[in-house]
Amino acid sequence: MTSPSAPAPAPVSQDRVRAIDWLRGIAVLFMIQTHALALLTPELRKSLWVGRLLKVDGLVAPAFIFSAGFATALLMVRSAAGGVLRERVGRNFRRILEVLAVATLVNWAWFPLLKEPVWILRMDILQCVGVCLLIVLPVAAVLAPRPKLLGAVTFLLALAVFAVAPLGELVKGPLATLTNKSSFAPFPLLPWLGFAWLGAFSGTLAGAWGRAGLIRGLGVMVALGLAGAVAGDFLYSLYPPHRFFVANPSNSAARFGWVCAVLLGLLWLEGRVAVGAKPSRLRRFIEVFGTSSLSAYFFHEMLLFYRIGGVFSFQRFWGDKSGWLGFWLLLAALIGLTFLLCIATDRVERVVRPGLRALVARVRRGRRDSSEPTLRA
């Protein structure tokens, strides 16, 4: 029997939210398409159609960072309710370190890290995701047993980040890397941390109150995003001059409004899929990118830009040379190769990871056994 003085267990939902994997998978596909625009001729990159594509591509990073925050909070809430929070925090922390390790490897591919170590601090998208999660994780872990408080805190923190983002352009010196977009910081924490907090807010809703709670929360954020987008001139006038399409709260509101609207649509599609139904080929294809987004980022970047063996890259052979037909064919090939490499990596990990865990467990047992005589003495 539960003691009358004991706190009531946190509400928790075990609903599978496949829609977030679909959102992340679609974002990865558009990310590959965005980077592959480097294959088009310079004239075509200035065309009206590329401008329209770039408007859609502007949702890629928000969706990517939103999904990361969502997954973190969702797992923290469920783990707290299941009594395995400490173990989950450790696993999430190791996953964040993997993200930062891959981010460093990508930076090393483009910049001389050994000669100029400062490049390790360059804030590109993976560095931004990793640092955002390092900030979100402890808050989500501490407040996970109290999802109502976690939801309120993450929502308010998101609004606060978006509100101060224009002021980040006033920051000078080393801290500007975290607050001001530049060639050294394509993705500073402002305003991108705000999308991670919104993702954490949504993940909290999904973890504590299931699909119904998530849908209501997304509806509120779509409405808030629309209101912010309409108030663009007013919001711009509240701050010193700044780059509207980089830091203004109205621009961020429009982006997260669209991301939440897309996720709502995906939730509707998920609701129409029969429980236990065999996934279609299209669904499996998207879910591979959604569950292997880190691998997909690394492999498509290397295939597209890095001269493998000093010889091959898509950029070397077709960069600045492709018309529309060639572009779409090359994009399909790039996506296909990335897909195959993601599957191969996943299969290798399934074999290697259990072996590594068993090895670590044996080492720990050996250490405990060797220390027992000393303890008895």
Characterize the structure shown.
The chain has one domain (18-281). 74% of the residues lie in helices and 0% in strands. It has 16 helices and no strands. It has helices spanning 18-36, 42-45, 48-57, 60-82, 85-110, 125-143, 147-164, 176-179, 189-230, 232-237, 244-247, 249-271, 281-291, 293-305, 314-318, 324-376. Helix 1 (18-36) packs across helix 12, helix 1 packs across helix 16 (324-376) and helix 5 (85-110) runs antiparallel to helix 6. The protein is globular and about 65 Å long.
Helix tally equals: 16
- β-strand percent reads under 5%
Structural class: mainly alpha
The residue fraction in helices comes out at: over 70%
The whole-angstrom Rg is 22 Å
Order of helices and strands: HHHHHHHHHHHHHHHH
Q: Any idea how many domains?
A: 1
Mean of pLDDT:
89
* Straight-line N-to-C gap: 42 Å
The low-confidence parts are: 1-10
Basic shape: globular
For the secondary structure, the number of strands is 0
- Please describe the biggest sheet, giving its number of strands, its sense, and whether it closes into a barrel: none
Key traits:
mainly alpha; 0% strand; 377 residues; 16 helices
Briefly summarize what is shown.
This protein is mainly alpha-helical and 377 residues long. The chain has helices at residues 18-36, 42-45, 48-57, 60-82, 85-110, 125-143, 147-164, 176-179, 189-230, 232-237, 244-247, 249-271, 281-291, 293-305, 314-318, 324-376.
